[in-house]
Specification:
disordered N terminus, about 675 residues, five-stranded mixed β-sheet, single chain, 5 helices, mainly beta, Maltoporin, Chain A, 22-stranded antiparallel barrel, 38 strands, about 55% strand
């Protein structure tokens, strides 16, 4: 059987506590560390993702989390997935090919992050074949070039259209001014991992700002054991030399006055140790390759004291190739490919001409000029699938931030999207924000979102296994949320939120009763309820502590069954402290994930991970050294497998869970010149 997706791409509460940590006194020659600011100033930090314009985080129509470059360095984060693991209410699973992000109890195994919109500097990253949001090493931009990551949970379709279903992640890259020189770094890590990075940037008085970066990684990996495959014919369940990973990345960003341009390229190749989709277990040829490329340009200027304009264009491409082996010891290799190309444009206006109103209006147009999927055998050649369905999309949106006196803000927005396949979809968002007292704020939110079926879900079809379904309807979500924030002193903040989500028309695989072939259908619904609590302390000695607790229950709307890969509790802690002036820092991170159901009907146990990082400077801060140990206590734990994880045996053997790495380490040196 050939693949249905590109997997081949594809007591009570234990303690708690989570991350923005790292307090250090910034040197006079370095950018100011956001984490050294008192809480009161952090609440006035401006974010842009929630409404597409700068607004105070305390006035945003959502409960926004921000992870800064200092957090990334101090806690030794290696990927976007590592960053998102530190955010309250978020959990990440790994099937040893891709990383999958779950939010507030909703995260189907192997869903390719189709319900999470990932942006790079405000521009869509999700591809237009699988709609995958890259979060692991397939993410095409090196983490050292990231200034901050903004995460806006809940529906974002009122501003961003399709895929902003469970939330929006905006990865904001650095500027050349952040470097003013060049930085070279090298690292070594467990599993025979080597990495090198080079970045150079400058800013001139003329207004020219340029940043260039490149990185390379090679990981040989380790042998992986799968008890479901444990017999003599399958190497006793041991996959040898198949956990390898490698990538190459390049990035450029230029701004000059009102004009800005950027481009990136990333290519990642990953071995597949899990067999999956009926492959032959332990064949060294099994692998996937993902390639992301983008070029964009924008112009932003003030047309008058009360009117700003932004115009931008973006050309992006995504290519995927999976190499699969289905017949033992056979020369026949199956190739699964995808190629998408999109040209998108956006025009938006921001007006403050009317008293107490801040109005943003915009229009977007995108042409998916290529959405190709193919599947074929080599030696002898046999074509099994070819599909290329170009598509055009358009959307218009309007939002008004209305101030009703000094203490009340009403934020209301509406967006309408239309595409040739799914027709039209309108999605509102309303937020009432009240400064109830001198040190407390209340927010009441309502919103809807949708996800248009992607090309794979509509058109992946073979003569024997799968049939297309071009009549698929968009998935929909309706959400309600109450948020309270309390900040009695400049060094302490606490927040709490209650949420209720309703999902309808969720897309899932089913069997057609007429021909017994598999088909994607709108057959599922679900509900999710929960609460989140978070507190943050900043100490005068530069130490910081952030804690969070997330309680959530997600269930099937028809049967009431607890959803798979849905932990009911998440607990997080991030603590950072200077050990010696501004020269040596330590950071400790604790993350607890409770028990989860697996897609195969079993369970994986809850687990708590401890990570530690030490960061030091020398040679007048030109040399930065860091050492990290991940899973310090060598905890044995696993993530749920998804439906595609089965081998070529007859009958097929399905994986229940996929074991994760034990204790791991990384050392890194960076020199600025």
């Amino acid at each position: 059987m050939y693949p249905t997706t590109k997997y081949p791409r594809r007591g009570l509460l234990a303690a708690a506590l989570a991350s923005m940590a790292n307090i250090a006194v910034a040197g006079a020659d370095q950018p100011q560390d956001l984490n050294a600011l008192p809480i009161e100033q952090l609440l006035n930090l401006e974010i842009i993702t929630a409404s597409k314009f700068a607004q105070k985080i305390s006035e945003a129509p959502s409960s926004v989390s921000v992870i800064t470059e200092e957090d990334i360095r101090r806690f030794g984060y290696r990927s976007l997935a590592d960053i998102l693991r530190s955010v309250r209410g978020v959990y990440v699973t790994d099937d040893r090919n891709y990383s999958y992000v779950g939010t507030r109890g909703s995260g189907r195994p192997g869903d390719f992050n189709t319900r999470l919109l990932i942006l790079v500097d405000g521009r869509r990253l999700n591809d237009m074949v699988y709609d995958q949001g890259a979060a692991g090493n397939e993410f095409p931009i090196d983490i050292s070039l990231v200034e901050r990551v903004e995460f806006v949970p809940g529906p974002g379709s009122a501003m961003y259209g399709s895929s902003a279903f469970f939330g929006v992640v905006n990865v904001i890259t650095k500027t050349g001014a952040a470097f003013q020189g060049s930085t070279a770094s090298a690292s070594a890590a467990s599993s025979a991992t080597r990495q090198a990075r080079l970045a150079s940037g400058f800013a001139r008085a003329s207004g020219v700002d340029l940043l260039l970066g490149a990185s390379w990684l090679e990981r040989k990996g380790s042998d992986q054991y799968f008890p479901e495959y444990d017999d003599a014919a399958h190497n006793f369940g041991l996959a040898r030399n198949l956990d390898h990973d490698s990538y190459k990345r390049a990035f450029a960003k230029l701004s000059w006055g009102s004009f800005a341009a950027s481009a990136y390229f990333g290519r990642r190749t990953r071995g597949i140790p899990t067999a999956s989709y009926g492959q032959q277990f332990n064949d060294p040829r099994s692998r996937t390759t993902d390639e992301y490329a983008s070029a964009s340009a924008s112009w932003q200027a003030a047309l008058s004291p009360t009117l700003e304009v932004h115009a931008g264009a973006n050309l992006r491409r995504y290519r995927y190739q999976g190499t699969y082996i289905y017949v033992p010891d056979s020369a026949t290799v199956n190739i699964d490919e995808a190629d998408s190309r999109t040209l998108s444009t956006e025009l938006r206006l921001l007006s403050t001409a009317f008293r107490h109103h801040k109005i943003i209006a915009g229009a977007e147009y995108a042409s998916d000029t290529k959405r190709m999927m193919s599947n074929y055998d080599l030696a002898p050649y046999a074509s099994l699938l070819f599909s290329d369905r170009p598509k055009k999309r358009a959307g218009v949106y309007l939002q008004d931030e209305l101030r009703l006196g000094e203490r009340v803000i009403l934020n209301a927005g509406l967006r309408h999207d239309h595409d040739a396949e799914g027709g039209g979809a309108s999605n509102p968002r309303v937020a009432l924000i009240v400064k109830a007292a001198a040190h407390s704020t209340l927010k009441a939110l309502y919103g809807t979102a949708f996800r248009s079926p992607n090309s794979y879900e509509r058109y992946y079809a073979t003569s024997t296994g799968f049939k297309l379904n071009p009549a698929l309807k968009p998935e929909r979500i309706k959400t309600y949320e109450l948020i309270g924030e309390y900040f009695p002193t400049e060094n302490f903040r606490a927040s709490a939120s209650l949420f209720h989500y309703r999902f309808t028309d969720l897309i899932a695989l089913s069997t057609d009763q007429l021909d017994c072939r598999l088909v994607q259908s709108n057959i599922d619904s679900a509900r999710s309820n929960g609460a989140e609590f978070e507190a943050e302390w900043l100490r005068d000695d530069g130490a910081s502590l952030k804690t969070s607790v997330s309680l959530q229950y997600a269930k099937n709307g028809a049967s009431g069954e607890w959803l798979s890969n849905s932990p009911r509790q998440l607990f997080k802690l991030n603590y950072a402290k200077p050990l010696w002036r501004d020269t040596l820092h330590s950071a400790l991170e604790y993350q607890f994930t409770s028990r989860r159901r697996t897609a195969a009907g079993g369970h994986v146990g809850g687990f708590g991970l401890v990570n530690v990082t030490f960061l030091g400077h020398a040679m007048g801060k030109r040399l930065e050294l860091s050492a990290s140990v991940y899973n310090l206590l060598d905890k044995h734990y696993a993530d749920s497998a998804s439906e595609e994880h089965y081998d070529s045996s007859s009958p097929a053997r399905y994986l229940n869970a996929i074991g994760q790495d034990g204790r791991a380490w990384r050392i890194q040196a960076s020199y600025t010149f």
